[in-house]
Amino acid sequence: MSTGMGATDRQAEIDAEALRRKYREERDRRLRADGEAQYVEMAGKLARFAEEDPYIETVIERAPSTEEVEVVIIGGGFSGMLAAARLREAGIKDIRIIEAGGDFGGTWYWNRYPGAQCDIDAYCYLPLLEELGYMPKEKYSYVTEIFEHCQRIGNAYGLYDITWFQTRVHALNWDEDIKRWRISTNRGDDIKARFVVTALGTASRAKLPGIPGIEDFEGHSFHTSRWDYDYTGGDTNGNLHKLADKRVAIIGTGATAIQAVPHLAASAGELFVFQRTPSSVDYRGNKPTDPEWVKSLQPGWQRERRQNFGDIVMGRPFSQDLVNDAWTDIFRNLVAVGVTNLMQGMDPAKVAEMAEMADFQKMNQIRARVDETVQNVEAAEALKPWYRQFCKRPTFNDHFLEAFNRPNVTLVDTSPSKGVQRLTKTGVVANDIEYPVDCVIFSTGFEISTAFKRRIGFEINGRGGQSLFDYWADGFKTLHGHSSNGFPNWFYIGISQNALSVNMTAMFDDQAQHIAYIIAQVKARGATTVEPTVPAQQEWIATIRKLSVSNEAFLNACTPGYYNNEGSTGGGLTGEIYAPGINAFNDLLAEWRAQGDMAGLHLG
Ligand code: NDP
């Protein structure tokens, strides 16, 4: 098996102009006039793809509620659980969590596809390890362990008693007369909450390609976030034995498909992988946790490790790489070098050129790995990504490329027709060729960078009935990303005008702790409401924009994807973040708390 790592040594001659030309050509082949609009929401006739929960054993019966509660948290994934845990630590007990799934876990509840694994170092990713005395079994945890950890948090913090599962929020409306949020749900609830924390994660709503025929297909079909094990057999470890006599199509080759394809390939009678843009598939190298290393850990180790990871990915100085994996390798070589040189006053144009050369080398290594692994020359050519590393989310897997050496696996490169064109009653059409199949699995991703309203999926109306989505129509308006003027006592955990980290759970935890602090302070100070003042909000927006390093040119040169709004404009997912990074942002918030004056917040 190829490691891919060794390929760094073979730094072939780089013809920068030829690579730039090739990248442009490959991008242009994929650009579509409809951009983000090519995807459809799982609503109306397509709602079944999202609403059916294949994992619940019993549908919970309960009467509609009109309860009053101090804090409602929407979402029982890591961010919602962390919000509840941190609020409890801050002395706030009267909490209600509302969760659509049948248990905790959020993305790890829904995404139980075979091979599902977190590709971030588990010792950084799984929260509250020290608090709960738990140590992950391996460097990269699989979904079962992550889901169990969610349940561990739920039990340890007493969250099961305060959670309504199988409940979807329909709308949040601020009631100025009673200074409470009113929350309606699909269960007919009308809950009154003093504070609301919206904690939906970044990939809570799946999406489908807007191609004709999805409803007409007469075989079996589902999205990867609703894996149908009744149909496939097996479990998250694979062994999908019921597919042995089936022709299966999987559409998409993003981070999800990279993990699921090896299992489908091992079990399906025939597998057709419909790829539009190849992913960058780097070396994984999972390994069991070393008990000797565990014994060496000192209290505070997890925070230290997360900070170390945060420093490395933002190019801040660090003395050693504690995580030391393919992520930190990429960031050390592509980001840190650039940031350090800029800080040392090197000409930005020179730095950009160096970063581009390092990127070419990295991607050459990724492409060399394809050649080393995939025997079929045509398939190998199609599997090579021709774009810069951070145009799309990097992926890591040691079995995906190997799957294409199996005789039952066919790669269908759909780039000539800019993706799958349609479904018929019996198959999938790409490049005007129909592939008859029994089952279609949509691995087509989530509402991550589509319109904010689509990502949230329910109404949020503040003072005077003002819609949050209208108020934010031309961009986020927040203080520190967590709250917005006109939406009293409402808090948001996610990617807004805050710092982004690929280690999302750490980022969510930091945000949760800050919000818990604010809510506790509002109560301690005897106030009823809290919201940012308009000047503070404007100042924060100005700060974000002043510090931002334009990545528009970079993103515009990228192949389309959710990082660049499907190629329509610059900005995209990373358009409004605090550029100095997660650790600098946390320092800023810590300083804000230490000042003790709740600067920029109006307490009413
Ligand atoms: P993605 O959005 O990354 O991938 C969607 C895939 O569907 C792409 O390959 C896309 O092609 C393809 N696609 C869309 N429309 C069509 C079409 N009409 N025809 C053919 N192909 C099409 O979704 P994923 O679920 O893979 O991943 C989403 C995110 O979830 C990841 O980026 C990551 O952040 C997270 N994740 C994290 C994991 C972890 O280990 N921590 C594991 C799995 C997911 P194209 O690229 O051309 O648009």
Characteristic terms for this protein:
604 residues, alpha/beta, FAD/NAD(P)-binding domain, 3 domains, eight-stranded mixed beta sheet, five-stranded parallel beta sheet, 21 helices, 35% helix, 15% strand, disordered N terminus, binds NADPH dihydro-nicotinamide-adenine-dinucleotide phosphate
Structural write-up:
This protein is α/β, with parallel strands linked by helices. It folds into three domains: 31-50 and 207-279 and 392-442, 3-Layer(bba) Sandwich (FAD/NAD(P)-binding domain); 68-205 and 450-603, FAD/NAD(P)-binding domain; 300-347, no CATH class. Helix content is 35%, strand content 15%. The chain contains 21 helices and 22 strands. Strands 2, 3, 4, 5, 6, 7, 19 and 20 form an eight-stranded mixed sheet that branches. Strands 9-18-10-11-14 form a five-stranded parallel sheet, with helices on one face. Strands 15-16-17 form a three-stranded antiparallel sheet, with no helix packed on it. The chain is globular and about 70 Å long. 46% of the residues are buried. Bound molecules: NADPH dihydro-nicotinamide-adenine-dinucleotide phosphate. NADPH dihydro-nicotinamide-adenine-dinucleotide phosphate (NDP) binds next to helix 9.
